[in-house]
C-alpha cells in the first residue's frame, strides 16, 4: 500500500470512530449498530459478556434506558494493517446524567465522568469501514 492509501485508510477509520461517538450521543441506535459488521464482537467498557453480531448489538443499545450523555474521544491512533483491515486505539471520556422531563440541562451523575479506552479491529466491507471487533475498558473505577 502506498503512503497516500495508508493515510486515507487511517483518516476513514478515525472518521468512523468519531461518527460512532456522535451517533451514540444522539442515541441513534440503528445507525450505531450499522457501523458494525454483521458478525462483529462488542465488549462494553463497563464489562459484561461479549455481544455477538449486529442484531444483538442493536438489541443491547435499544434495551438501555434513556440517559443524558456526552462522549469525548481523544488520542485516536489508527494503524492500517492492510488495504482492508486496520487497528485502532482511542481514549474515551463519558459524561452522563438523567434525562430531565422539561428538557433542561441534566445534573451530572455522581459516577461521571468515566475514563476509558477502546481497541478496535476495523475492516473494509461493501458498506465501507466497519467495526469487526470493538473492545472497551475503564481506566478508573467509578
Q: Element order, helices and strands?
A: HHEEHEEEE
- What topology, given as strand order, has the largest sheet? 2-1-6-5-4-3
Uncertain runs are: none
Rounded average pLDDT: 96
Nearest-angstrom radius of gyration? 16 Å
Specify the structural class: alpha+beta
Described by the principal axes of the CA atoms, the overall outline is globular
In total, the number of domains comes to: 1
Write up what this structure looks like.
This protein has a 6-stranded mixed beta sheet. The longest helix has 23 residues, at 3-25. It starts with a helix and ends with a strand. It has 3 helices and 6 strands. The mean pLDDT is 96. The chain is an alpha+beta fold and 142 residues long. The radius of gyration is 16 Å and the shape is globular.
Keywords:
142 residues; alpha+beta; Nuclear Transport Factor 2, Chain: A; 6-stranded mixed sheet; 3 helices; 6 strands; 27% helix
Question: Care to give the gist of this entry?
Answer:
This protein has about 140 residues and is of the alpha+beta class. About 25% of the residues lie in helices and about 45% in strands. The chain contains three helices and six strands.
Amino acid at each position: 500500500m502506498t503512503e497516500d492509501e495508508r493515510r486515507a485508510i487511517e483518516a476513514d477509520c478515525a472518521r468512523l470512530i468519531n461518527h460512532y461517538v456522535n451517533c451514540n450521543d444522539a442515541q441513534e441506535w440503528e445507525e450505531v449498530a450499522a457501523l458494525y459488521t454483521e458478525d462483529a464482537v462488542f465488549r462494553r467498557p463497563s464489562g459484561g459478556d461479549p455481544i455477538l453480531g449486529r442484531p444483538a448489538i442493536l438489541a443491547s443499545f435499544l434495551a438501555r434506558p434513556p440517559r443524558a450523555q456526552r462522549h469525548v474521544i481523544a488520542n485516536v491512533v489508527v494503524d492500517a494493517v492492510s488495504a482492508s483491515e486496520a487497528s485502532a486505539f482511542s481514549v474515551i471520556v463519558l459524561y452522563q446524567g438523567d434525562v430531565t422531563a422539561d428538557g433542561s440541562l441534566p445534573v451530572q451523575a455522581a459516577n461521571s465522568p468515566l475514563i476509558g479506552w477502546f481497541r478496535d479491529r476495523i475492516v473494509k466491507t461493501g458498506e465501507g469501514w466497519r467495526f469487526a471487533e470493538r473492545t472497551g475498558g475503564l481506566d478508573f473505577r467509578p
